[in-house]
Amino acid sequence: MLTLTAHTLEKLELLLKSAGYKVRYEKGNFKTGACMLLSSKVVVVNKFSNLESKIHALTELLRELDIDYNLLDDKQTALLQQIKQTRLQL
Questions:
Q1: Which domain holds residue 70?
Q2: Which of 24, 35, 65, 89 has its CA 20 to 30 A from that of 16?
Q3: Tens digits of per-residue pLDDT, 13-26?
Q4: Residue 71: other Cβ atoms inside 10 A
Q5: Is residue 1 part of a domain?
Q6: Residue 54 to residue 47: CA distance in whole angstroms
């Protein structure tokens, strides 16, 4: 389980950036707290969401994305595998 801290949010952002995605924080009324811009590699996170919602939105997005593990370092690969496995446990 991921801890709900600013450090965890930074690790998720870095993982996405390493995979070639750009993370932006902007205002928006999208329900999930984050969205992809027309299948481009830009992730927009609602900047008015609380920390827990931002982390939850990015983890849900990471579960759905098909990320090349070769772009990630060992720690990022382990984090991504942990995120994807938590869905299997639910």
A1: 6-89
A2: 89
A3: 999 999 999 999 98
A4: 13
A5: no
A6: 8
